[in-house]
C-alpha cells in the first residue's frame, strides 16, 4: 500500500493483533481499537467500530486467523468444524454485506482444502487475509481509475454527490465510489464533493466528509432532503454510490436513501453510477426482490444525543438498506471493467 494515496487505513494487522479505527467516534475523536481475540472481532463487526463491506470482510478474515489460533486441538476434523462455526458467527453479524460473506468463504476454503498440519494452516490463513487486503487496495485503485471514463467530460471539473461512506474507511484504505472521486481529484477533474449526511447515523457527514477534509478535497455536507434541490439548481454533475449487494440483473442494495437519489438523478438526467468490487455481485440472486432488508434499532430515529425527538406512542420504521432498480443505474464500475446493469453476465464469464 502506498501511504501517499491516503493515510486512512481502517484495518491494520500489526505483529500479532488487529488495529481498527473506531468509526463510531469520528469525527469528534480519532481512536483506534486493538483486538487480539476472536470474540472481540465479533463485537467490532456488530457494534459499528468497523463499517463498509470490504472493511468488514477484511476484519472477519483476520478474525478467522485469530480464531484459528484459539482452537486447541490436533484433530483436523475438529479444527475445521470449530473454524467453520466461527465463520458462520461472523456471517451472521452482517448478513446484508455480500463482501463479508465472500471473505469468510474465501478464508474457510484455505483451511478446508489444505492438507498441511494445523499450525501450517494457521499461517496460511494469516497470509490469505494479508493477500486479500493487498488485493482490495489494488482493486479499489482500479475501480477509481475505471470510473474516470464513466462521468461526463464537460465541465472539465465536476461536482459529484455521494451518499453514506464508500471510501477509505469502508475498504482497505482507498474506496469504491469515493475512490473514483479520489482518482478524479488526482487527475484535476474534481471540483467538489457533495456529501449527503445519510440519516439516521450520518455516515456521510461524519465519515465521508472527514475523509475529504483529511486529504484537502473540497466537501460540502448537505441534508439528505437537499439533494433534489441541488440537482435542480445544476450543482451536481453526477451521483456516485456504493453497494452492499448486487443481483444478477443489476438491482443494487445499498444504504437507505440511495434509491431516492437514483430517482431524482434520473428526473434531472444526471448519471447515477454504482462502484463496487466484483465480489459484491451475487449471481445466485436474480433480482432485488430476493434481497432481505434488515431493520436497525428505532432509537436511531427518535433519539438525537440526549434529546428525544418523537412523542411516546409513535411507531418507527428504520430499514438499513433499500434496492435501486437496475433501470435507474447508468453504469456499474468494478475492478474488472465498467458495465451497464444488463451486461453483468459478462463479469461471470470473464
Short descriptors:
Four Helix Bundle (Hemerythrin (Met), subunit A); globular; 350 residues; Rossmann fold; alpha/beta; 4-stranded mixed beta sheet; 2 domains
Write structural notes for this entry.
The protein has 350 residues and is an alpha/beta fold. It has two domains: 132 residues, translation initiation factor eif-2b, domain 1 (Four Helix Bundle (Hemerythrin (Met), subunit A)), CATH 1.20.120; 199 residues, Translation initiation factor eif-2b, domain 2 (Rossmann fold, 3-Layer(aba) Sandwich), CATH 3.40.50. The chain contains eleven helices and 16 strands. The strands form four sheets. A seven-stranded mixed sheet has the order 6-5-4-7-10-15-16. A four-stranded mixed sheet has the order 11-8-9-14, covered by helices on one side. Strand 5, helix 7 and strand 6 form a beta-alpha-beta unit. Helix 1 packs antiparallel against helix 2 and helix 2 runs parallel beside helix 4. The protein is globular. The protein starts with 10 loop residues before the first strand and ends with a helix.
Amino acid at each position: 500500500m502506498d501511504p501517499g494515496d491516503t493515510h486512512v487505513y481502517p484495518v491494520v494487522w500489526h505483529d500479532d493483533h488487529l488495529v481498527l479505527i473506531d468509526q463510531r467516534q469520528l469525527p469528534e475523536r480519532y481512536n483506534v481499537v486493538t483486538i487480539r481475540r476472536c470474540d472481540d472481532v465479533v463485537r467490532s463487526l456488530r457494534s459499528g467500530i468497523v463499517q463498509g463491506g470490504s472493511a468488514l470482510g477484511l476484519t472477519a478474515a483476520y478474525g478467522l486467523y485469530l480464531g484459528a489460533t484459539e482452537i486447541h486441538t490436533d484433530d483436523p476434523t475438529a479444527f475445521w468444524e470449530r473454524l467453520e462455526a466461527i465463520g458462520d458467527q461472523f456471517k451472521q453479524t452482517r448478513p446484508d454485506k455480500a463482501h463479508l460473506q465472500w471473505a469468510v468463504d474465501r478464508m474457510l476454503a484455505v483451511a478446508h482444502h489444505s492438507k498441511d498440519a494445523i499450525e501450517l494452516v494457521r499461517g496460511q490463513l494469516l497470509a490469505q487475509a494479508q493477500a486479500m487486503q493487498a488485493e482490495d487496495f489494488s482493486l479499489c485503485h482500479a475501480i477509481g481509475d475505471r470510473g474516470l471514463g464513466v462521468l461526463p467530460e464537460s465541465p472539465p471539473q465536476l461536482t459529484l454527490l455521494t451518499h453514506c461512506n464508500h471510501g477509505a474507511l469502508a475498504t482497505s484504505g482507498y474506496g469504491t465510489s469515493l475512490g473514483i472521486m479520489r482518482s478524479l481529484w488526482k487527475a484535476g477533474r474534481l471540483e467538489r464533493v457533495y456529501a449527503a449526511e445519510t440519516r439516521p447515523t450520518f455516515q456521510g457527514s461524519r465519515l465521508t466528509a472527514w475523509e475529504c477534509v483529511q486529504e484537502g478535497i473540497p466537501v460540502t455536507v448537505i441534508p439528505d432532503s437537499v439533494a433534489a434541490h441541488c440537482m435542480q439548481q445544476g450543482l451536481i454533475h453526477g451521483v456516485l454510490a456504493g453497494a452492499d449487494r448486487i443481483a444478477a440483473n443489476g438491482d443494487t442494495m445499498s444504504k437507505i436513501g440511495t434509491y431516492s437519489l437514483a430517482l431524482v438523478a434520473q428526473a434531472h438526467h444526471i448519471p447515477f453510477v454504482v462502484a463496487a468490487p466484483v465480489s459484491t455481485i451475487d449471481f445466485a440472486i436474480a433480482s432485488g426482490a430476493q434481497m432481505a432488508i434488515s431493520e436497525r434499532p428505532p432509537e436511531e430515529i427518535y433519539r438525537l444525543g440526549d434529546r428525544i425527538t418523537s412523542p411516546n406512542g409513535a411507531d418507527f420504521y428504520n430499514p438499513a438498506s433499500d434496492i435501486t432498480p437496475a433501470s435507474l443505474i447508468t453504469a456499474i464500475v468494478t475492478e474488472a471493467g465498467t458495465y451497464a446493469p444488463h451486461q453483468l453476465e459478462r463479469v461471470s464469464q470473464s
